[in-house]
Amino acid sequence: MDAILLAVIVGVPIAWHLGLTAFAYYDAGRVGLEPPWKWAAITFCIPLFGFFVYIFERSELSYDPETDPYRGHNFNIHPSRADDAPLRSRGDDRNTSTKTPEDGTKQVDKRR
């Protein structure tokens, strides 16, 4: 019983790992990610994460900028949020208020 349990606990993950490595090797050659041995080595050396790296890199091959919903940095904004002021980015030293008080001194934004 112990040998069967050990074979299942060790053998099944190793079989999956080698199967994912073989898939990455053969599929990389088929879709044009050259060299395929590089993707097999990445998948083999970094067990599960390496396979996901391969899958994400493979998905970049089919990128079509015409169907990209974020092309040109266009974002859909809900009408209820359209009048909100944008957040300041890091290093943005501009004053948010352009009004000057009556005494002639400039207002400094202290929201950091």
What is the strand tally? 0
Count of alpha/pi helices: 3
Major sheet: size, sense and barrel closure?
none
Distance between the termini: 64 Å
Structural class label: mainly alpha
Gross geometry: elongated
Strand content: under 5%
Radius of gyration: 27 Å
Level of helix content? 40-55%
Tell me, rounded to a whole number, the average pLDDT: 80
Which ranges are low-confidence, i.e. pLDDT below 50, for 5 or more consecutive residues? none
SSE sequence, one letter per element: HHH
How would the blueprint of this fold be written?
Elements: H1 2-31, H2 36-45, H3 49-59
Helix pairs in contact: 1-2, 1-3, 2-3
Verbal overview:
With 112 residues, the chain is an all-alpha fold. The protein is 46% helix and 0% strand. The chain is built from three helices and no strands. The chain has helices at residues 2-31, 36-45, 49-59. It is elongated, with a radius of gyration of 27 Å. It starts with a helix and ends in a 53-residue tail after the last helix.
